[in-house]
């Protein structure tokens, strides 16, 4: 059996769909999301992105080949140079200063997801780590594409969240997503069914933690 990334999403289809099409995502697309929920999400996502940059640094540390090192470097660059830069700018526009960001308390959903990924990477190998990271990079790219295809999505100035959708639909982010998909497809092609079952569990867990992250934003939970 020659596995591919799509087999990971198929193995947890209900969770994957619940993540991509969460109420938070739908409200972002329609421009109807509660602004305080978005602010809460932005703050926690700042903390999330810092830990995810650390996870890509861990992927670099665990890389044994130049190709793997380059892939980890691409992921780190996508987070630090694209997302975090834009994110700090979004936060400023939404009234959250860099000083505020530096003093944020971490919500339980942020703590659970980020530490799960770091722990998976620490105890497993490079493929375990990339599979735990995949719902993040691939999921947000797919969410932007899904939103762009929905009739309820409002693009342009009428939607206060348009810049957020544009970031994940951007050529740069989509290129990072496609590079990750290519890397995963190449590595998944020769895993055994038993190994695939292990990786599917990791992917499903990380996807569920993404669902919890959206819900944390919607509920403004700490
Ligand atoms: C929680 C979460 N997941 C994914 C992404 C996209 N890197 C993000 N910014 N935040």
From TrEMBL:
The keyword RNA-binding does not apply. The keyword Hydrolase applies. One of its GO terms (biological process) is thiamine biosynthetic process. It catalyses: 4-amino-5-aminomethyl-2-methylpyrimidine + H2O = 4-amino-5-hydroxymethyl-2-methylpyrimidine + NH4(+); thiamine + H2O = 5-(2-hydroxyethyl)-4-methylthiazole + 4-amino-5-hydroxymethyl-2-methylpyrimidine + H(+). Pathway: Cofactor biosynthesis; thiamine diphosphate biosynthesis. GO terms for cellular component: cytosol. Signal peptide: none annotated. InterPro entries: Haem_Oase-like_multi-hlx (IPR016084), Thiaminase-2/PQQC (IPR004305), Thiaminase_II (IPR027574), Thiamine_Salvage_TenA (IPR050967). Residues 14-219 form the Thiaminase-2/PQQC domain. Its EC number is 3.5.99.2. GO terms for molecular function: thiaminase activity. It is an enzyme of class 3 (hydrolase). Keywords: Hydrolase, Thiamine biosynthesis. PANTHER family: BIFUNCTIONAL TH2 PROTEIN, SI:CH1073-67J19.1-RELATED. Belongs to the TenA family. Catalyzes an amino-pyrimidine hydrolysis reaction at the C5' of the pyrimidine moiety of thiamine compounds, a reaction that is part of a thiamine salvage pathway. NCBIfam families: salvage_TenA. This is Aminopyrimidine aminohydrolase. The gene is tenA.
């Amino acid at each position: 059996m020659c596995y591919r990334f799509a087999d990971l999403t198929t193995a947890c289809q209900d969770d994957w769909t619940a993540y991509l099409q969460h109420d938070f995502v739908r409200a972002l697309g329609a421009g109807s999301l509660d602004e305080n929920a978005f602010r809460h999400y932005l703050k926690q996502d700042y903390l999330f992105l810092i830990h995810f940059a650390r996870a890509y640094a861990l992927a670099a540390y665990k890389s044994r080949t130049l190709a793997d090192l380059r892939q980890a470097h691409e992921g780190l660059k996508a987070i630090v140079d694209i997302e975090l830069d834009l994110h700090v700018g979004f936060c400023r526009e939404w009234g959250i200063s860099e000083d505020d960001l530096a003093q944020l308390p971490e919500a339980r959903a942020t703590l659970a997801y980020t530490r799960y990924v770091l722990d998976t990477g620490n105890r497993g190998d490079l493929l375990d780590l990339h599979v735990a990271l995949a719902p993040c990079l691939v999921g947000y790219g797919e969410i932007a594409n899904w939103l762009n295809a929905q009739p309820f999505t409002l693009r342009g100035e009428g939607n206060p969240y348009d810049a957020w959708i544009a970031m994940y639909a951007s050529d740069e982010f989509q290129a990072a997503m496609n590079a990750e998909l290519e890397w995963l497809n190449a590595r998944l092609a020769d895993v055994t069914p038993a190994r695939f079952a292990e990786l599917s569990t990791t992917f499903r867990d990380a996807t569920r933690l993404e669902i919890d992250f959206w819900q944390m934003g919607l509920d403004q939970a700490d």
